[in-house]
Amino acid sequence: MRGIRIFKWTFLVIGLALATVAVLIVMNTRKFIARAESARGTVVEMAGDRDGYAPVVKFRTAKGRERSFEEAGRSNPPSYAVGERVQVLYDPKHPDDARIDSFSDLWALPMILGGMGVLFAGIGGGVMLFGMSGRRRKEYLLAYGTAIETELQGVERNGALEFNGKNPWRVATQWLNPDTNKLRIFYSENLWFDPSRFVTQKRVTVLLDPKNPKRYYMDISFVPQLESDA
Question: What is the CATH number of domain 2-110?
């Protein structure tokens, strides 16, 4: 399905991009800390509105020059109060390049971006790995599986899976195990179109894993594959 392909690649690319930005910010921050000098500053104003407030900090450099800066991060409620004393790091060659010396102000942004990057990339990569694993299992069972003939039950929607508000179809069959005299139900792989008009036979082959009979693959090669399927 084309939508799933777009979904997994979009999440993977976004995740990798966010993780890359997070790494670049960390590298930039470490370089800044390495060359920075420390000073005591005072919060003189809280800039912003109800969407978020950022402290404006005034400090004096080692050369006695007074400087002020607005912290990049915003929060609501405000993280600082007017008149509060804070530790400041600044670039001695460019004193206007200054930041509050606290873990949250220095590292919160890359941590958030990195976490989001791992999450997005994990979802996209997980979908890709799941698809690859399913294809390998299918190839293995087609080559080495024990074939049994099952009785067609019909075509149904898979309510346990939903994408873009739609549930896929699947073929359902049943088989009476002669060794245990127990009935077993089998389901085909998910199909993103209704295959009912192609399912005309009463018997469908299912391939059982000889090492683990709980694993199986239903041979529905009689159903055409859509070019846009993932």
Answer: 2.40.50
The amino acid at residue 212 is: N
Element (H, E) at 53: strand 52-60
- Residue 80 CB burial class (10 angstroms; 0-12, 13-18, ≥19): buried
Q: pLDDT tens digit string along 146-157?
A: 999 999 999 999
Tokens of residue 99, six digits? 């930041």
Interhelix angle 103-144/2-35, rounded to 10 degrees, is: 150
Which tens digits make up the pLDDT trace of 123-140? 989 888 877 888 898 999
∠ CA 30-26-48 to the nearest 5 degrees? 100
Q: First CA to last CA across the chain, in angstroms?
A: 4
User: Counting beta carbons within 10 angstroms of the beta carbon of residue 41, is it exposed (0 to 12), middle (13 to 18) or buried (19 or more)?
Assistant: buried
If phi > 0 it is left, if psi is from -120 to 50 it is alpha, else beta; for residue 83 that is: left
Specify the pTM.
Answer: 0.65
